[in-house]
Amino acid sequence: MASITARLPLPPLKLVNGRQSLNGTPQKLAMPSFKEGHDRLNVKSKATGESSENSIVKSVQNVWDKSEDRVALIGLGFAGVVGLWAAIKLISTIDKVPLVPGFLELVGIVYSSWFIYRYLLYKPDREELFQTVNKSISDILGQ
Length: 143
Fold this sequence. Notes:
It comes from Dorcoceras hygrometricum. Its main location: membrane. It is found in: Membrane. It is a multi-pass membrane protein. This protein is α+β, with helices and mostly antiparallel strands. The chain folds into 3 domains: about 45 residues, no CATH class; about 45 residues; about 45 residues. The protein is about 55% helix and about 15% strand. The protein contains 4 helices and 4 strands; from the N terminus they run ββββαααα. It has a two-stranded antiparallel sheet with strand order 1-4. Strands 2-3 form a two-stranded antiparallel sheet. A hairpin with a 2-residue loop joins strand 2 and strand 3. The protein is extended and about 45 Å long.
């Protein structure tokens, strides 16, 4: 179980029409009063169950233990890091060219709209997408 505790400063309260407001707009409901001298708010969050980090580590350990050619796995990991670095550099270079970022943003908006219309708007289409994703995952994992 993971736990996070934070002490956050309270937002500044403004007095509007005789009532306390967090953002300066009049409040129709009475705001709870804070005791003087308390300038911080305690927040505590707990997570239960298995974290995703543990499952990722376990799956990587399983792949490493089952592998016969570990040198190829190291090379594949290195190639992945180099490919990620190259992709980041390519995107940052394209982003510096005038008009290209706006055009690519328009392409992204149009494609996202089409994807939502094609796969997410109606239930049969969502089921088709779910089946396609599950088939692709099973093909990748070799199941």
